[in-house]
Specification:
Blueprint (H helix, E strand, L loop, with lengths): L5 E5 L2 E4 H17 L7 E5 L4 H12 L3 E4 L6 H11 L3 E4 L1 H4 L7 E4 H4 L19 E6 L9 E5 H14 L7 E3 L7 H13 L2 E3 L6 H10 L4 E5 H11 L10 E5 L5 H6 L3 E7 L4 E5 L20 E4 L5 E4 L6 E2 L3 H7 E2 L2 E2 L3 E5 L5 E6 L4 E3 L2 E3 L1 H9 L4 E11 L3 E10 L8 H5 L9 E5 L12 H5 L6 E3 L11
Parallel strand pairs: 1-10, 3-4, 3-5, 5-6, 9-10, 9-11, 11-12, 12-13, 25-26
Antiparallel strand pairs: 1-2, 7-8, 8-17, 13-14, 15-16, 18-19, 20-21, 22-23, 24-25, 26-27
Length: 471
């Protein structure tokens, strides 16, 4: 790797690998002057930026444990995570630093450069594969978030497993289209740093700015969810993505048939916070049928389906456990096998199809209904921009699916006939319309917000299997 090759490309700034190393060393000196050492947890509460990457790498160099914090959470939610992780130090964006999160010390990024610099050498044992490297909180879609404790060995194994399928080198550039506090965003940083590739920071996460970065910044790899990929492709109005863009890694749920046809580079993946992101990945060059699932396991990762249909994962990327929570850890990990709670199937070629999270499964009249299947079918309709499906109570059937649908243009499109031709009758949802589907920071639909009736204003229209049931 040439030290002059770019390590980070951001709006108005290019940082070489040599410059990044120097900045990380200096930042680790600041952290050590603040008392950061072996096992010291450091909260990083900031938007994606060059300095975020510098500080994250510096925490590792100083021997600390990185705790990325979600910038979208309310003060009580952040305060709970600060207490849970025992954070004595939080480094925050200037706009966040004054908020009441009950940390012992909050350092604003605006004052970061004024802090004294201590020992800049790498702390002894900072590269030990067994040491805790990060605590990443799950999205908390049901109940309190859990803190997944990821080791340095987990991170190295994850980057290596990905590189075995998607080789990276100094000429490659991965677009950071996810927040770094999400394990998928953090994974982009780890892959690029370990391979000498470059992280590209877009001006924002909007489809417009992501498309602009793909065009202008030499991007070769990008991670997105299906809904965002669809928006990017629609903006391009039939113009193909650049040939140098070799891989569009699509996570957070199934990839629509439309997106797969419009984007030959689209490769579906299934990943978890507890596994440093990717568990499976569709291989480049796979056939059309093979691209419909989430792909086979990455090298070194084992997959199996338990008797109750639950996906189980084992391998060097699986977390050490949950933060100070032996009960949750024991229920999630058994004999090295992680039980993430998702339902799935593995075909004869070893490719995984993710059907649903177990808690999202809808049992209607004794039949299993998988929200992802209905959502994917709805997105195939030309008038549907986005959709999310939840279960709602029903006197006759116990539970029925309700689809919250965002249309591309005003006016109620007749979706019933479209769905009747493609789904069994027991899968046909009631339909409600909204201007926007609420989503989590990782791009997945926020089902809990929809269930609680906190989605953007909508009105329920057509029904199936009886009377309408409002949220």
């Amino acid at each position: 790797m040439t030290r002059d090759h770019p390590a980070i490309v951001a709006p108005g700034e290019v940082v070489s690998h040599a410059s990044l190393d120097a900045r990380v060393a200096q930042a680790s000196g600041r952290l050590r002057a603040l008392g950061v050492g072996d096992g010291f947890c450091v909260g990083l509460w900031a938007a994606n930026s060059v300095e975020w990457i510098v500080i994250a790498l510096a925490v590792a160099r100083a021997g600390g444990v990185l705790v990325p914090l979600n910038t979208r959470l309310a003060d009580p939610e952040i305060a709970w995570q600060v207490e849970r992780a025992g954070l004595a130090l939080v480094i925050a964006d200037e706009s966040l630093a004054s908020r009441d999160i009950r940390a012992k010390r909050v350092v604003s990024l605006a004052a970061w450069g004024e802090l004294p610099v201590g020992d800049t050498s790498a702390a002894p044992g900072s590269g030990d594969p067994a040491r805790d490297a990060a605590i990443v909180f799950t999205s908390g879609t049901s109940g309190r978030p859990k803190g997944a404790v990821l080791t340095r060995g987990n991170q190295v194994a994850s980057a290596g497993a990905c590189a075995a399928v998607l080789p990276l080198g100094p000429g490659d550039r991965w677009l950071a289209s996810l927040p770094f506090f999400h394990v998928g965003g953090l994974g982009v940083v780890q892959r690029c740093v370990s391979s000498g590739a470059c992280v590209v920071l877009p001006a924002s996460f909007s489809a417009e700015d992501l498309d602009r970065a793909i065009e202008d910044d030499g991007v070769t790899h990008v991670s997105v969810v299906d809904a965002l990929l669809r928006r990017i492709l629609e903006m391009r109005a039939g113009r193909p993505l650049p040939e140098r863009l070799r891989a569009v890694v699509v996570g957070g749920g199934p990839v629509s048939a439309w997106a797969l046809e419009a984007c030959p580079q689209a490769l579906a993946t299934y990943g978890l916070t507890e596994t440093c992101a990717m568990v499976t990945l569709v291989r480049p060059g796979s056939s059309g049928a093979q691209r419909l699932g989430a792909g086979p396991a990455l090298p070194g990762v084992e997959l199996r389906i338990a008797g109750d249909g639950v996906i189980e994962v084992r391998g060097p990327t699986v977390m050490r456990g949950y933060l100070d929570d032996p009960v949750d850890a024991a229920s999630a990990l058994h004999d090295g096998w992680l039980h993430p709670g998702a339902l799935g199937e593995i075909d004869a070629d070893g490719s995984l199809t993710v059907l649903s999270r177990r808690e999202d499964l809808i049992v209607s009249g004794g039949e299993n209904v998988y929200p992802a299947e209905i959502e994917q079918t709805l997105r195939e309709h030309p008038d549907v921009a986005d959709a999310v499906v939840i279960g709602v109570p029903d006197e006759k059937w116990g539970e029925v699916p309700l689809a919250l649908v965002a249309l591309r243009r005003p006016g109620s499109s007749d979706l019933r006939a479209f769905l009747e031709a493609r789904l069994a009758r027991y899968k046909l949802p009631r339909i409600a319309f909204t201007d926007e589907i609420p989503r989590l920071a990782n791009g997945k639909p926020d089902r809990e917000k929809v269930k609680k009736g906190n989605a953007p204003a909508y009105s329920e229209t057509r029904t199936d299997r009886g009377s309408s049931t409002p949220l």
